[in-house]
Design a protein that fits this description.
By secondary structure, this protein is mainly beta. The protein has one domain (12-636): Quinoprotein alcohol dehydrogenase-like superfamily (Methanol Dehydrogenase, Chain A). Helices cover 10% and strands 28% of the residues. It has nine helices and 37 strands. Helix 2 packs across helix 6 and helix 5 (64-71) runs antiparallel to helix 6. The two termini are 41 Å apart.
Amino acid sequence: MKQASWSGVFAAVSLIGSVLGLGSVAQAQSAPDGAAIFKQHCQSCHEPAIGRAPNRAALGYRRRGEVINALSGGVMTPMAVGLSAADIKAVASYLTPFEDYFAQSTASAGPEPKCKSNPPIKPGPTDWASLGMDGASSRFQPHPGLRAADVPRLKVKWAFTMSGGGQPTVVGDWLFVTNRGGKFYALDAHTGCVHWSVDGAGSRTTPMVIRLTASPSGWATIIGGASRQVTAYDAATGKPIWKSAPLDSNPQALLTGTPVVSGDKLFVPVSSLEEAFGSSPTYSCCTFRGSLAALDLKTGKRLWQTHPIGERLHSLGKNAIGTPLQGPAGGAIWSAPTLDPKRRLIYAGTGDSYTAAPTKGADAMVAFDMDTGKIRWLRQVTADDNFVVGCYDAKKSANCPSPDGPDVDFGASPVLMTLPSGAQVLVAGQKAGWVYGFNPADGKVLWKTKVGAGSAIGGIEWGIGADRRTVFAPNSDAFPLIDEVMRAKGKPVLPTPIAGKPGLTALDPASGRIRWQVPAPVAPCHYAGDRSGDRAEGACIRAQSAAPGVMPGVVFSGTMDGWLRAYDTSSGKILWAFSTTGQTYDTVNGVKGQPGGGIDGMGPTIADGMVFTMSGFNGAAQIGANGANVLLAFSVDGK
């Protein structure tokens, strides 16, 4: 996708719940019955749940507006053909009985806390202006504004509630953050007050902030959003500058990887949800092919677009009920690409294949020519990783490819590192639990190291990081952990037990040698709402799937049980640990008693003496995902 694979039909596919199979509902009566619609068209996918689809109880923690938005112009629009607005509202109301619990904060919050002034954006040495911090995707902040010795004194300074929030970026005193709930915010990084907000801008991408002459203020922030389009906004006002044309005609395509900029070009990865829709026997699986597009930075005009799957699309016959099948398909790019201006290359990892048609473009690391889009090299590491949702279940989907693959995409951005010798290595983590070192010039595998068991929800899921000498790879192994919990209750989720190895590993980038490896601690958590449903039944799953944040001497890494920890980069010793579910928060936007949740996704941001993380993010596993996320801002002594 991907962000899909178990890996997440990304959370957005948490929504598969509300709609997989709703497409044939007839025009609503004057008073549509949401329960009846669900029973007739959705129940078979959710009671019991199929694949990544959440069960009925888990759907109760969805925000009603998210369900409505998803069906009315969002990622689930193709499955809502024939539904009236009243139908959609009725289904959403039926599916979200806990809406009143989560909405009480909205009712009491009142107006957004507007900042008293909106000073000009002034960059500084401690900025974190893009998802990966730099073009190499290192996630390393060399000028954090605090010392390693200060980290044990970190305390929450302010908190801000939003629905489905992601990772923020910071330039000067300005913080930018998107969310799947639809509101794009520019906040004051030190107080959390609102400089501006934009409605209808739901996004899974992290805002990039750049200088742009086409912007009235001279600054722009760019996000990928609905309808597979990219939008550039004036960073000082939130007013749109340009919007691109849709980057894919496949209705299941979407943008999940954050765009990156080099020179006068914006590079945008394209992903999809087709592996989820492919679980429906009436869906003609599959045609989507992941791609990387280059846009003109000033106008949003598409300059080139390249698909790593280059084999011809052809018929694969029909499934058991006569639905046509075709392939190859898949190879989604669902993470931010990595820049190499010296070689004029841009690197990206691809996801799994959706069909049994052979392809070299899935589960591969790819180098594209920045100027032309031509593929300079492509290195596949796992062949025949063919997967659609529902193929792990006892009753398999009619579209399951043969052979079935393990669903072990590249979901984390690769990191381009320069070694003490001056040589360079491209380091990438895979959901199979492997970390690879590639020669950036030709894609040759220099080394590979196993750091975990690997599984469809990681292995290495959302990101790795690096300082000047060490690579840091968080390992999830969520499925083995969930299986351990559910197997003890007589409800296993894997065919056979797998020994999970969640934790954080430090590796030598020259050789792949493990320098240290620290298991994720067993620790308490307190979920206010848990959408994993029968997948984990509220258990504290310590999967370490979120991307890390690195500064001199310290690497920050979060876990699905809601803990954010700081590790010594030399030894792996835990210097500081904070349970984001261990308390509630009175947020600056008026929410009293806002709960925290699991940490899963794009990881922390370090800027100007502060550390920012999103608690309750709705990641692939949905563990501890309570619907209303909280952005937490930490500073030394909370000052």
